[in-house]
User: What shape does this take?
Amino acid sequence: MASERGPAPLGERLRAQGLRLTPQRQQVLAAVSELDHATPETIGARLREQAGPGGAAPDTSTVYRTLELLEKLGLVWHTHLGKGAPVYHASEHPHLHVVCASCGEIASADPALLDQAAERLAADLGFTVDVGHVALSGTCRRCRESGTENA
Amino acid sequence: MASERGPAPLGERLRAQGLRLTPQRQQVLAAVSELDHATPETIGARLREQAGPGGAAPDTSTVYRTLELLEKLGLVWHTHLGKGAPVYHASEHPHLHVVCASCGEIASADPALLDQAAERLAADLGFTVDVGHVALSGTCRRCRESGTENA
DNA sequence: CTCGTTGCAAAGGATTTGCACAAGT
DNA sequence: ACTTGTGCAAATCCTTTGCAACGAG
Assistant: This one.
């Protein structure tokens, strides 16, 4: 239920800048869409998996390069949730991320939650908040209850 | 002239857990307080600087270990602002961080800005937001105006 | 055919870990 | 003295880069 709606814009977006549409790029974009909140590492793993035994999956470096490119094209976004693990998600549906500092679980929330804060920041500091990149950390209900909070 | 007012709680906090008060720990804590929003690297540099020629500054690994410890004690907090650069700040005055995705500039804002959002998250998801850890990314006025935004 | 892309492998930077010695209580 | 903490160096992890071969347009 993921890839039937091929992102028409991909090819055009690329050509518009003299760039080329390659299978690797389509694969990476597809993977990001399927695995919401995936790290480059995870995306690479998924691609290997999909490639099967004989198939060849894009190299790690290609994954990184492609992710960077797709982000420049505005097709994906990344967020740093914690230590060394940026996660990417397709930009289709903007949402903000909420990460549990204990278990690492990621939840999504309505971007509108920050509208008020965003407006005040714009007014006070002239700072434009990028809601798609926002990550709030805290403690999820489960961890809070199991007392795992302050590990 | 920096350590006049040694944080009284430090020694007690440590002893309370059977831990020891060492000069390194005092130095690291002092450095974090002085340099608001410093990375471990920056903190290390500062310590070397203060140590002077003959003096010995804490090793990098000690800085990392100490930072982790101080955070566990609740004396400092860290936030991931971007790629590989967690920044630490003394927990005295809670505030949220706003980072410019273009120039990396860090601004502080009133935590109360998020109160509303925090309440809704608590109500909807049972998620407790840790305001001290929050970082919002976006574009600062200067970058927005100079068009450096989409580098 | 031409130039952007990829794969591979090595380079780099940041953070962590094991261990023996030094230091706080 | 006993146990925790530190410094040093090696080990990891994640990401980036150089370069020759490959493939899209």
Notes: Chain A has two domains: 1-91, 94-150.
